[in-house]
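Suppose you are handed a protein chain with no further information: no name, no annotation, nothing but its sequence. What can you learn? This example shows the usual starting point.
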Amino acid sequence: MKYTYFLFPFLLGAYLCQAQNFSEVDAILQKSLSLYRNDVCVMVNQQSKPIYYRGLGDYDSLSVAAVASVSKTFSGILILALADKGLLSLDDTLGKHLPIFTQYGKGKPTIRQLFSHSSGFPGSETEDYLTSRTMTLEEVANTIAQTENFDYEPGKGFAYGGISMQIAGRIAEVVTKKSWNQAFREYLADPLGLTQTTFCLNSASNPRIAGGACTSPKDLMILAEFILNKGKHQGKQIISANTMEELWKDQTNKAPQLESPYPDSPKYNNPYGAPIIYYGIGTWQDIYNPTTQYQEQISGAGAFGTYFWVDRVRGLTGVVFTLSLGAITRNATFQIVDAIRDAVSLTTSTSDIRSKEGVSVFPNPVRKGQLYSQTAKNGPAILVNSMGRVVLRFNLETLNRGLDVQHLPPGLYFLKSAWGTSKVAIH
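A reasonable first move is to predict its three-dimensional structure. Written in structure tokens, the prediction is:
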């Protein structure tokens, strides 16, 4: 099988990082290649530096294909860009911008709900207007206002699909006074240099907002890095960090999931055993740490198999790019994500302490250089270095607020208390 190594200058030599072992990732790829129809490209960065790359079959970093619902993340970030510029608010009602919905008694949902599948509208249309090549986005929105009824009270359910995002696409046209494609290029694609990303499905007058993008692994990695860097691209703040944080929030308020393609209690890519994966603004809330109460990873996933993710605890961005069936490739892709997570170290100052007996302590997700734990345990504790010397004395309660260890040299330490001993690596 052909291995293709991308040779653009910013990737030269970096994908064969000897400090990390990706043999398990390679093994999963080889074993699963037929599921990807023999064409797949995997790219992974850590802290914006390439650490892994494989291009198998005819796919490489510049291959372009339709990515189905990964489009939702591109579209969601465009909506955030418009909100950041004050052209709309996520809490604006639908009726504020499209009065026809108020006319038909459907003006209550907010843009936030439209882009998190919690608007009250069904996920799938009763007619084929979402795929129409003859209607305009305005005509599609008007048709929805006239023909589609709420399946549930806005904000009280989650029904995955394209109807509500198509409405939001029309709102973007109204507030920018530009077509969706023009707004996408001006507010997102051009500032980020997304030279291979277009809304290729349907037509220019009715682009499929929730599923019509064509893109490449290169452009997807740019988007993932943009998310990781909190709205900054090449040193320039394109969207404010506060606005970008909306991607990391469960925007459904844990509403009952009436329709969802994401499996419950996924076997892989689910280290904390979450029974349900919730949704943000065009993003799946993949990994939420219930101990630190921190959203560690979000993603975009498409029915054609392409998946990208952003892990802000490990500083990882990754893309698995293919043109297959997501329902068939999902487990293999999630195993790849798990294998990469296991192969790399945390980018915060401390590694996760794993101990059956001691207090479970984690790197502080908000402030680097701290140990952190949500623990009801109390009493004196010490941190001992590898030479047996006590370097810190503290009370276990301190871990709830964050224990400052940034002054300590890198190395292996032992946290000891009446509750046991745990190891921690400080980087």
